[in-house]
Amino acid sequence: MGHDVSLILTVSFIVFISTIISKITKVHIVSVEILLGSFSFSFGLIEENEIFKIVAELGFLYLMFMSGLEINLRDLVKIPKKILNLGLLYMALLYIFSLFIVYLFSLPAIFIVGFPLISIGLLPILKKEYVDEKWLNYAFTIGLIGEILSIVVLTVIGASVEFGVGYDLYRILFILSLILFLFFIFYKGFNFLLWWFPEFRTYLMPLDDTLDQDIRFSMMLFFVMVSIMLYLGLELALGAFVAGSFVSTFFSHKHMLHKKLNYLGFGWLIPIFFIHIGSTFDIKFLIVENLILTSILIVAVMITIRMLASLVFYKNYGLRDSLLLGLSHTMPLALLIAIASLAYENNYITIFYYLSFVLSAILQIPVSMGLIKLISNLLAKKDDTSPVQTSSLAI
Q1: Strand runs (DSSP E) across the chain, as ranges?
Q2: What is the DSSP letter of 131?
Q3: What is the rounded distance in angstroms from the CA atom of residue 392 to the CA atom of residue 395?
């Protein structure tokens, strides 16, 4: 009981004090929350707790839900074929670079899928700081391709480890393909329904809403989609993301909804996720020989290959926006830790590489956000090198 009370009080205090520390030190609040979580665990203020872990997982899923809120599927289906092809080329280059580096330095094979992982989960946090930046809109659009591919890769690897290569693996892949297809059919069907009965939109989310029906409906959709993924044994983040994009696409008339959901997530649930991430890393591990150097190298590789691959967008977006787009994809925090845990639990990597993955996932946030701020300030905002205007991609 005493440990539970200490955990609740510590987490509550960190959620509040991290904002003050961030303002004073100018360090991004996510980094502060992770660091405070790590120090609290190291000094015994936070211990392993199943409820804490569940709430943190809920925070991550809500973060993915907020990411989905930034994606309007109507705009997504209008992506020019050229940009879509460039996005696929961008992803292909990430895997090619990763394969080359793993072969060159004789690294464990799991790095081939670890280096290129992309998650747009932290982009809503950047959105709060870079509100009107076009490169961030591009990052959501291109990042969605990478996110889906990363989730598919994670699902395939998880199924391969659990079932091996055989019937069960192919069954999981079939179910995943079927679910994506059904999502598409549902989108088309609901779009058709609203075309014939537009008043149904305001029935579900009234304009004059004194009972917060919009939030209640959004949360119902969030948990329904997560439950479907849980029942099918698929990646829960995919369900949370789809729920967010559904709300964004069909209920844009609720202009304040995004802000209200934002307060709920970033004010409480999401900080608990980052605190929990920090608590998975004891600072005493820093004395392990070459751990810090290896983690820094992993961060450097992940940043470098994205910045190189992002140059495929140079003619369309210009140098500044292309580099910032690539940097915004260098923080696949939860996915990186998930794949490291999967590999370690099944003896594909040693404890050293597992700790290196975890530390690199933590380091990526301050390093990437610092580089984003640096490049954003150094390179002129009016980068007119691009002969092609892509304002139609703004989400």
Answers
A1: none
A2: T
A3: 8
Q: What's the total number of domains in the chain?
A: 1
The CATH number linked to 147 is 1.20.1530.20
φ/ψ (deg, to 5) at 257: -60, -45
Angle at 47 between CA 42 and CA 49, to 5 degrees: 150
CA atoms within 13 A on the CB side of 216: 8
Q: Decide: helix, strand or coil at residue 14.
A: helix
Tokens 């950047």: give the residue. 126
Q: Which residues of 112-144 are buried (b: 16+ CB within 10 A; e: fewer)?
A: bbbbbbbbbbbbbbbbeebeebbbbbbbbbbbb
Supply 169's token pair.
């693996």
Q: Give the Cα separation of 123 and 11 in Å (integer).
A: 24
Q: List the structure tokens of 323.
A: 């580099």
For 308, the domain range is 2-393
Residue type present at position 335:
L
pLDDT tens for each residue of the chain, 395 residues long: 567 788 888 999 999 999 999 889 877 788 889 889 989 988 888 888 888 889 988 988 898 888 788 777 777 777 788 888 898 999 999 999 999 999 998 888 888 888 998 888 778 888 877 877 888 888 888 888 888 788 777 777 777 766 666 777 778 788 888 888 888 898 889 888 988 988 888 888 888 877 888 899 999 999 999 999 888 877 788 888 889 889 888 887 777 887 888 888 888 888 998 898 888 888 888 888 889 999 999 999 999 999 999 999 998 888 999 999 999 998 887 788 878 887 887 788 888 998 898 889 888 888 998 899 888 888 765 554 444 444 434 33
d(CA 15, CA 358): 22
| Tokens describing residue 390 | 């892509």
| CA nearest to 204, candidates 264, 245, 247 | 247
Q: Which residues of 336-361 are buried (b: 16+ CB within 10 A; e: fewer)?
A: bbbbbebbbeeebbeeebbbbbbbbb
Closest CA to 190 of 240, 144, 246: 246
Cα dist from 59 to 155, 286, 296, whole Å: 20, 27, 27
Treating both helix axes as pointing N-terminal to C-terminal, what angle do 213-232 and 50-69 enclose, rounded to 10 degrees?
A: 110
